[in-house]
Amino acid sequence: xxxxxxxxxxxxxxxxxxxxxxxxxxxxxxxxxxxxxxxxxxxxxxxxxxxxxxxxxxxxxxxxxxxxxxxxxxxxxxxxxxxxxxxxxxxxxxxxxxxxxxxxxxxxxxxxxxxxxxxxxxxxxxxxxxxxxxxxxxxxxxxxxxxxxxxxxxxxxxxxxxxxxxxxxxxxxxxxxxxxxxxxxxxxxxxxxxxxxxxxxxxxxxxxxxxxxxxxxxxxxxxxxxxxxxxxxxxxxxxxxxxxxxxxxxxxxxxxxxxxxxxxxxxxxxxxxxxxxxxxxxxxxxxxxxxxxxxxxxxxxxxxxxxxxxxxxxxxxxxxxxxxxxxxxxxxxxxxxxxxxxxxxxxxxxxxxxxxxxxxxxxxxxxxxxxxxxxxxxxxxxxxxxxxxxxxxxxxxxxxxxxxxxxxxxxxxxxxxxxxxxxxxxxxxxxxxxxxxxxxxxxxxxxxxxxxxxxxxxxxxxxxxxxxxxxxxxxxxxxxxxxxxxxxxxxxxxxxxxxxxxxxxxxxxxxxxxxxxxxxxxxxxxxxxxxxxxxxxxxxxxxxxxxxxxxxxxxxxxxxxxxxxxxxxxxxxxxxxxxxxxxxxxxxxxxxxxxxxxxxxxxxxxxxxxxxxxxxxxxxxxxxxxxxxxxxxxxxxxxxxxxxxxxxxxxxxxxxxxxxxxxxxxxxxxxxxxxxxxxxxxxxxxxxxxxxxxxxxxxxxxxxxxxxxxxxxxxxxxxxxxxxxxxxxxxxxxxxxxxxxxxxxxxxxxxxxxxxx
Length: 757
Hints:
five-stranded antiparallel β-sheet
């Protein structure tokens, strides 16, 4: 019977009257009398403008980069996409960009609705056309019907964008529907539609179709799906729409995978949804896989390349983490070779089909990024060096001198302690995954290192599992931030992982958000992390190894009047590029760099989403800026409650060589220089500052206090090409953290130093 139904569906899909419009030439066929979409103008933002007003910031003069951004929807209708899982910006190499987003005008005026889905599209990323309210119809085709939502009006949620075959912009979203229609507390019917006219000035969005095949009958089966992670693939000559949805109404929580295996005239024929993962997953012996029945388990994320190869990953403690490996919070993952129709189901952890990153690998990776293994930071030029992590200190209770072996563990002076840095990370629940053209697996994740309390120089390990018995996460330490993890063959070689710290967020996490005027991020570092989720994406050009990283972070900080509270004042977007599949990256670049920004006292570029793919030279960024000056009904309490100005930016970087901008490549910065970490550090009272310059020129070396106030100019003179040393004497200064900043030909680099008397 099911096969017969599918046959009739296929016949219907192949009938032109069913699909409304069949595109044969998108440049010529236009809907007669169709009102053109609203044209919106781009805003040009320099990637290396003036320093932030709240202290010295490193400015990278990457001459191959640029950033152009366009406001595609204003605060009247804007809301965007706050959740990290959906993919609101689609990109097709020969077509252009398509963005979809949730509108939130219901909090602007009485009687409105917070559920319209808007769409904007562009062929070149510069000229954009915006179409409002594409979800006013259901598969029934009725205009403004009495929809099966609480108020009979559209209730769109969690939008994703893509491109169907032939360059059709495609929008996928959830409609928040009533229980008798398959909805529930937060979710509902997942729908999609496409623009039959293709990218351009005119648009004609066809009647929506169900993503979940079970929604062809009501109530839907499965019901109440929400927060969908959706991709449209066009490889192997057979376009596919795949989706992974959270079953909100399920206990335990199930995650449903939905695939398509047939396409006609813009429509995908969907297969039945099936449970891909569950908080209640069990191993061969019948025991649950996840600690505390899923409370420490993230929602899964997935990505497929155009050959149908891909991975699903989630981060969790294993059920046996109190007694057996893996003890650490780690990634579990599965692989597919057929666009998600089947996944690895045997072997791995407890015979479940899940491979995982084991403790030994995590310890090896974290140890490689911790830098306190020498008194000389120049011994490890590729690693970070944090001046507030010291090898010797004073026990605050006894006054005794503590001598810690820097080759094993480090005394960390910024928390009540003393404390010892231990190998390993705690991975947080927001991460992004990509599968490259060779089937390699890339993870970009938020992570913080762990410390253990200790007053005698070593942490207790009574159970002999290689980890301290008492561990807690410390977000203020180096390697806290966005990590790139890569394995070219993670199923057959599960230990062959490498790690790169792409964005150090220890300063961002260290700040006291509770005293900031940035709303809805409190003083606890952990909730703040949920707002700074990372993104990566790949070039869609054939055979390319280009990758893009995007993240947002606190970029401006200040102190209160008595210098007791350090709090954030600004948020910006940051980008990096790799040309060798993530082995090396260009320098981290602040692309928005808008102190004061659009609003004089609050500039928050938030909710960054990269396009589902990019080219070798450019990538799209979807983000939004809250409008704090528009009253909402009821009054807003967090920045996601405000109206939002929704933007799409195009970041261009033509770098062709690998390595770090300003250090390894003449092409990227012909007048390169390097400002090295001072040594010794901490120091009392004399230290050496070394720098290298490629060409003769004037060098300015300034010293700032921790609040960004300039203390003095140490050097302002011409120096010849080569390596130079400056001896800094801090006899006249008080103990504390300082910044030293070097500027040459308009390029600035900044480092920290610590004076301890």
